[in-house]
Each structure stands twice: as C-alpha cells, then as structure tokens.
Specification:
CATH architecture of chain A: 3-Layer(aba) Sandwich
Strand content of chain A: 15-25%
CATH class of chain A: Alpha Beta
CATH superfamily of chain A: CofD-like domains
Number of helices of chain A: 13
CATH topology of chain A: Rossmann fold
Structural class of chain A: alpha/beta
Shape of chain A: globular
Radius of gyration of chain A: 19 Å
Largest sheet of chain A: 7 strands, parallel
Oligomer: homodimer
Distance between the termini of chain A: 29 Å
Largest interface: A-B, 33 and 33 residues
Chain lengths: ~325, ~325
C-alpha cells in the first residue's frame, strides 16, 4: 500500500525548511510529502551540491545551523582552509561535515542511483520520518538573467552575493525533466487535504518546481486547496533576495505582489499581521486570506503556523 | 633548457619521504628528481587518493603529521564523523585538510590534466622547490595475493591491517603504463650521479616503480650507481609490513634479504649499524656496502643520511 499523503509542501531552502519542519511536527510522517527545489543544485569540483534539499534535510534532522542559516551546526572548516591554500575556489563554502553528504551523494549518483532514492537513504540514516523528495530526478538548472548577463544560480546567489540586478529567470532542462512521480501522484489523489507553498523565494525556489511539465496543471486541478505563505513581510524578505528581485523586476515588494505572482495557482494566501492593511488588496483578486504571525523564530512558531495553515485549508475545503 | 638531474630518488610513503626530504635539503632543487610510487593509488567515493605521492608532498612541504605517520598535521576529522553517520565506509580515514587535496586533484584528473601536471601545480602551491613526479601518469594498481585471495592494496593495508598472509604481488596495468618521461630521461642522462632507492617497502613501494616498462633496463644501464637503503633494521621494518612480508614469503626478514631482493639492480647497499654483522653476507653478492645509522628520527638524521648516501655514490663512481 502506498502512503496516503494528506499534505504536500513545496519548499526552497531556509524559509521553506522552517515551515516544512513545522508541518513534519504536526502531521503523521506518512501524511506529509515535502517537495524540495533542485534548481539550485550544481556541480562543484565533482561534488553534486543540493542546497535546498540539504537545508530541508538538515532542518528535519535537527542538524541545521540556525544562526548561520545554512549548512550544519557544530561545523568545522578544515577542508575550506586547505582547499584555498591549494588553489581551490573559495567563493562557495562547504563545511567538513556537510562535505560528507556531498561526497556520498555524488558517488551514489555516479553509481546510477536516483536523487530520490539517495535522499530517502540519507533521510533514513538521519532518522527523518517525514518523506522528503527532490522535485525531479532530472537535472534542472536555474539561471538568473542579470545586467551582468545570465548567471548560474549559485554564481548569482553566493559568488556575486545577489548584486547584479535581475531581469528574469529560466530553468534549463525543465521542459525535459520529469516531475517526481510521488509528487504528481500526491497531487492527483482525491484525499489530498492541502498543498502548502512555503515562504521560500517565489522566483527561484518555487517557480522551478511549478515549471516542471504537468505540475502547474496538477496544482490547478488538485482536489485540495493550494495555500502560499508570503515570504515578504513589511516589504522585506525574511532572508534572501526576494524583495530585491521584486523591485528589480519593477514590481512592488509586497505580500500582494507575491499573491499576484502565484495568481490562479492559489486558493488561499497567508500574510503577516504587519501587512494586514494589504489583506483587502489580496482578497480582491479572489483569493482567501489568513492574517497571522508568519515570522518563525522558534520551533513553537513553526508548529503553530503549520497548524494554522492546515486549519485554514480545512476551512477552505469546507466552504468549497 | 631542461634541468640537470644529478640524483633520482625512488620513494614509497613515509620511510621514503624521510630520505627524500633529506635529499631535498642537501641538493639544489633542480638537481633532484623524486619519483613516487602510485601503485597504492585508488578511487574512494570518486576521490583519487595517492597515499605515497601525498606522503612525500606533505613531508617536503613540512605539513606531514610525524606522530601519526600519515596525512597532515593539525588535522580535523569533521568529514569522517559525518561520513560514518551517513553510512559511508569508515575503514579509510581522510582528514578534512587532506580531503581538499583529493577533491581538487580528482576534479583536475576529470578535466583531463595529467597526474604529473597536477602534482607540479600542487607542489608549487605548497612552496615545494624539489621536483616530485608520480612514477607514471597511467593507472597501476598493486594487488596483494593473500591467503584470503587477492586484495587491492589499500584493502590489504588499511582495511585488513596487513593481517592476511601474503603469497605474492602483482601490479595491474603496469605492462601498459608508461613510466614518467622525466624519470626515464633522468636515468638516461650521462651526468646522473646517483639513483637512491629509499628505505620504502621493496615489494609494494619500489617494485611497482621497477615493474614499469623500461625502468629495470634503464636502472641497470644508467651511468650512475644505484643505491638502496635497507628498510629492514635488526630484522624489523621501521614502519609497515615489510618484515612480515619477507617472513610470509619464506625469506629471512633481514638487510641481506633486501639486498638479494633488489639483486643486480644494485651497485651499493646502505645498512644500519645494528646489522653490521651481516655486511659480509651482502658484500659477498658483489654489492658495495655502507654501514651507518639509517633510522631517521630528526631532520638532522635525514640530511646526514642523504649526505652519506651521496658521498657513497661518489666513491662508487670514483672506483668504477
């Protein structure tokens, strides 16, 4: 028997991982499917690095470094020190413990194992009960179109520190990639209760997932309400370049702009109390709204927001 | 103008690296060519590991851990801890700093760069003036024939801790491999003054080098005396399984047994004072002998033994 997925969460890295952890806390392990963006994945010196997938995995395993915001806690940096000394590029930092994941995964990929299967193995090793899958087992590469030309995502994000103004995005390989079958199956199930778009970057964390063949149609057709949590609060992104990107694209960096970006994908939108004044602007587009505290500082914040999102979805199902 | 190599040193790992460092201290950088065994090299999770080459490189750079006997000093172990946690094999330890070398080199090899060129780059980065080359840019794999069947060298040496009794050795790929051109050119030069076989394991450190096409003939024909320093002192190896191997092959583990093993390759043999009583047994085979202190504890020991070996070679040239 395949598990009955009640909730699907779409996630990028840090912000998404926070709500994914909240959902994993409040739902039975078989009820939740977390789908992570892999458009950020890249090859660095023969190592396949999957930043969003790993951020979610480390968060679910309680291994994440909350202060730094990426990588493992209690990390050492002996590799990077020697790597730089020997002439290796220094712009992408990899901790010694984090490196173990990349070395193992890269070898398993070369052995012909799928990223989904490797992710399941690693999650089992780390004692993660929730199901976490990459959006696809096929490579998709997010490219950021900027004033400095097109940049591979990590070059834009890490090497260039998001400095070059953006003009657009493309997801190389997306049209040929197959969305994760477990993801598509969960969206097609009649007993699905909610799809939660976590507060990750709409352009570079969520859009790569939605761009996969069949995903937009499946999200639109699915039985469950699709909710998004705004990554923009009071005009700012909690973390990362989302607000800057909205502005550079000539859009307001605001919760309503996020809701408009997702457009007809959405049945519900969760915005922060700080943006309560903009609730009507969002509701006017025909999307149900929930105003609450969306900034997740503690584990209690994460589980409370997860509970509220699920209750919101239940109300939307009741009123459908 | 190509450099004038006056001395060629053949080296395995730790013992060889000690005398290689001594020679590098007493000779001008262009006068010495150190040829390292690469029969121990292997692929571990996609990383190309070259234990002997790296032991020599770290020793020449002053980065070696003298107490542990392998790897870098001031090393951290975050990678191994996480690697084991995630299900990676634990039998082969790689320090965090050491890993940088393997990641960089593996990527350069995938880029199509030769091991010789990569070694030169790394040596330059580490400020090593002496010339260090791998015995070949082609893969050669030492296989140890044991009572437990044939074992890849690192499986025998590290995983099985040299426990299975040995019955022989083979060097897979050797017949097809090309000896390093700089090595062959140095042996062919008329002004070569000495070939020094360092006190490394004859079976698994030196024989792989000698097994390469053309090397035995070049050593026999070369203008300079070929000297070996005994890795066996008072019946024991200073480090590693050499004495155990002699015994398991039904041979005495003694300095004369080492001299007989090298046979007509040798013009001179350097043995320890502890074995002075066996000098005549070696001399009877027609090989010139030098009895001295061969156990290298300090840098002063290394340079003194290097000086003595070079003076011994000069005497042999004078008497030829």
């Amino acid at each position: 028997m395949s598990p009955v997925t009640r909730v699907v969460a779409l996630s990028g890295g840090v912000g998404g991982a926070k709500l994914a952890l909240g959902l994993a806390q409040v739902l039975a392990s078989e009820a939740l499917l977390i789908v992570a963006n892999t458009g950020d994945d890249f090859d660095h010196y023969g190592l396949r690095v999957c930043p969003d997938l790993d951020s979610v995995m480390y968060a679910l395993a309680g291994l994440n470094d909350a202060r730094r915001g990426w990588g493992r806690r209690d990390e050492s940096w002996g590799f990077m020190a020697a790597f730089g000394e020997l002439g290796g590029e220094r712009w992408f930092n990899i901790g010694d413990g984090d490196l173990a994941l990349h070395v193992l995964r890269s070898q398993r990929l070369r052995d012909g194992v799928t990223l989904s299967a490797i992710t399941a193995e690693l999650c089992a090793r780390l004692g993660i009960a929730a199901r976490l899958v990459p959006m696809s087992d096929d490579p998709v590469a997010t490219v950021v179109e900027t004033d400095a030309g097109p940049l591979a995502f990590q070059h834009y994000f890490v090497r260039e520190r998001c400095a070059p103004p953006v003009s657009g995005f493309r997801f190389d390989g997306s049209a040929q990639a197959r969305a994760n079958p477990a993801f598509l199956a969960a969206l097609a199930a009649e007993d699905l209760e909610a799809v939660v778009i976590t507060p990750s970057n709409p352009f570079v964390s969520i859009d790569p997932i939605v761009s996969l063949p069949g995903v937009r149609a499946a999200l639109t057709a699915c039985a469950a309400p699709v909710l998004a949590v705004s990554p923009i609060v009071a005009g700012q992104a909690i973390k990362g370049p989302a607000a800057k990107m909205f502005a550079e694209l000539g859009l307001p960096s605001s919760a309503p702009a996020v809701a408009r970006h997702y457009g007809d994908l959405l049945d519900g939108f969760i915005l922060d109390r700080a943006d309560a004044a903009q609730e009507k602007e969002i509701a006017a587009t025909g999307v149900a709204t929930l105003v609450t505290d969306t900034v997740m500082r503690s584990l209690a914040d994460r589980t409370r927001l997860a509970d509220e999102a699920l209750a919101f979805a239940a109300r939307l199902r009741g009123s459908a």
